[in-house]
Design goal:
- It is built from 14 helices and no strands.
- Helix 4 runs parallel beside helix 7 and helix 7 packs across helix 9.
C-alpha cells in the first residue's frame, strides 16, 4: 500500500512539474511578444500622429504609456526568476502567472486602441476620394432643391401653417448645408496640402455630415406628404368611430363624466376644418383621438359603476366601526396576556393597526371609497385572526390541572391544582416579561 501511495505522489509531482515548465515557457514567450507589440504600437502611433494629428491619437498614446509602465513589473518578475537567490516552486508559479496576465492585458489594450484608429486612418488615406464624393453628393442634392421648393409650395396650399412648420424651411436649410459642405471640402483639401492634417480631417468630417443632413431634410419633405395623407385617412376613420361612440353613449349609464366626455368629443368634431380648407391633420387627429379615448373610458367606468354600485359613506363607516370593535377586543386580550402571546398574533395585530391609520382619508373621495371598504374589511379580518391566534397561544401556555394524591385527596377535593395554576401564571408572567422585550 505504501508503494502505491508513493507512486501516486511521484506522478502528481511530475505532472505539476510539467505544468510549471509549460507556464514558465509561456511567460517567456508572452514577454517577448508583448515587448515586440510595444515596439510596433510605437511605430503605428508615430504614423497615426502624422496622418491624424495629436488629438485623435491621444487614446493610443495614453494606452502605450500605461502598457510600458505595467510591463516593467513583468520584466522585474522575470528578472527575479533568474537571479542567484533560489525560489520555491510556488513563488515561480505565481510570478509566471502574473507575467502572462500582464502581457495578455497589454496586447489586448493595444489591439483595442489601434483598431479604433484603423477607420480614421483609412478615411485619411482615402481623403481625396471622400472629398470628390462630397462634391458629387452636394451637386446631386443641389439639383433637388427646386423640386423640394415646389413640393413645399404645393403642400402649403393644402395644409395649415401649424402642420407645415416642420418642413417650411427645409429647402433653405438644405441649400445652406450644401454650400457649407462644398466649402468644407475645399478647406479640407487646402489644409491637407499644407500638411495640417488634423484640421483637414475635421473639415472633411463636417462636410460629410452636412451632406447627410441636407439629404435628410429633403427626404423629410417627401415623407411629410406621405404621412399627412396617412393621417387624413386615419382621421376619417376616427371621425366615423367617434360619431358611432356618441350614439352609443346615449344608451350608456347616465353619469356626469359620460355627459362631459360626449360634449368634449362633439366639440372636437365641430372644430375639424371644413372640407377643402387648409388643415392640420396631425393636430386634429391627436385632439380627436384624445376626446374619443376619454369617452370610451368614461363609458367603461359608468358601466362598471352600474354593475358595482359605489358603497355609501355610512356603509364604509359601519365596516370601519366593526373593524375597530374587533381591534379593541384583540388589543385587550393581547395587552392582558403579553407574556403568553406569540409572534404570529402580534404580527397580524400590528398589520391591522397599520392599515387602520390610512382608512379615514379614503372614505370621502369616490375614487378611493371602495379601497377604504376593502381596507376596513381587511383590518377586521386581521384583528380576528390575531384574536384567534392569541387565544390559541394562551390556551397552550395555561398549565393543566392535575389529580392530587390518592385520587380525591383530602376532603375529596383536588389537591395541588390551585398551586399549579398560580405557579403557571407566575411563571408565565416572568417568561412574558422576557418575551415581551423580544416581540415588542
Amino acid at each position: 500500500m505504501a508503494g502505491f501511495w508513493g507512486k501516486r505522489k511521484r506522478e502528481q509531482e511530475a505532472a505539476q512539474a510539467a505544468q510549471d515548465a509549460d507556464l514558465a515557457r509561456r511567460a517567456e514567450q508572452a514577454l517577448v511578444a508583448a515587448d515586440e507589440r510595444i515596439r510596433t504600437a510605437g511605430d503605428e502611433l508615430a504614423f497615426a500622429e502624422a496622418e491624424l494629428g495629436v488629438s485623435l491619437t491621444k487614446d493610443l498614446k495614453a494606452a502605450l504609456e500605461s502598457v510600458k509602465t505595467h510591463l516593467r513589473e513583468a520584466f522585474q518578475l522575470h528578472q527575479l526568476n533568474h537571479d542567484e537567490i533560489p525560489d520555491t516552486d510556488e513563488e515561480l508559479r505565481t510570478r509566471n502567472a502574473r507575467i502572462v496576465q500582464l502581457c495578455e492585458w497589454a496586447e489586448d489594450l493595444l489591439d483595442e486602441k489601434t483598431t479604433a484608429l484603423a477607420d480614421s486612418v483609412s478615411r485619411v488615406r482615402q481623403a481625396p476620394q471622400i472629398i470628390e464624393q462630397v462634391r458629387r453628393d452636394a451637386e446631386a442634392l443641389a439639383a433637388r432643391i427646386p423640386q423640394t421648393r415646389s413640393s413645399i409650395e404645393r403642400l402649403s396650399t393644402r395644409y395649415a401653417e401649424s402642420a407645415m412648420h416642420q418642413i417650411s424651411a427645409s429647402a433653405d436649410e438644405a441649400e445652406q448645408l450644401i454650400a457649407f459642405a462644398t466649402h468644407g471640402a475645399d478647406v479640407s483639401e487646402r489644409r491637407r496640402a499644407a500638411r495640417q492634417n488634423e484640421e483637414a480631417n475635421l473639415a472633411l468630417e463636417t462636410a460629410t455630415e452636412a451632406t447627410r443632413r441636407a439629404g435628410a431634410l429633403m427626404d423629410a419633405v417627401e415623407d411629410f406628404e406621405i404621412e399627412a395623407l396617412r393621417a387624413e385617412s386615419t382621421l376619417a376613420e376616427v371621425v366615423a368611430d367617434s360619431r358611432g361612440d356618441i350614439i352609443a353613449a346615449r344608451s350608456a349609464p347616465k353619469a356626469p363624466a359620460v355627459t362631459a366626455a360626449v360634449a368634449e368629443l362633439e366639440q372636437a368634431l365641430e372644430a375639424l376644418s371644413p372640407a377643402g380648407s387648409r388643415n392640420d391633420p396631425f393636430a386634429e387627429l391627436t385632439q380627436l383621438r384624445t376626446a374619443n379615448t376619454a369617452l370610451d373610458d368614461a363609458i367603461a367606468k359608468a358601466q362598471y359603476r352600474a354593475q358595482n354600485p359605489l358603497p355609501s359613506v355610512a356603509q364604509v363607516q359601519h365596516s370601519l366601526d366593526d373593524a375597530d370593535r374587533q381591534l379593541g377586543v384583540a388589543r385587550g386580550l393581547i395587552s392582558g396576556h403579553r407574556g403568553w402571546i406569540g409572534a404570529d398574533a402580534r404580527t397580524r395585530f400590528a398589520e391591522a393597526e397599520r392599515l387602520r391609520i390610512d382608512i379615514p382619508e379614503l372614505i370621502a373621495p369616490e375614487e378611493t371609497r371602495e379601497q377604504a371598504l376593502a381596507a376596513s374589511r381587511r383590518v377586521a379580518q386581521l384583528a380576528a385572526e390575531a384574536l384567534q391566534l392569541a387565544q390559541r397561544d394562551i390556551d397552550s401556555a395555561r398549565p393543566q390541572q392535575q389529580q392530587g394524591w390518592g385520587g380525591d385527596g383530602w376532603g375529596g377535593g383536588r389537591r395541588g391544582g390551585g398551586g399549579d395554576i398560580m405557579g403557571g401564571i407566575m411563571g408565565g408572567l416572568v417568561i412574558g416579561s422576557i418575551l415581551d422585550g423580544i416581540f415588542d
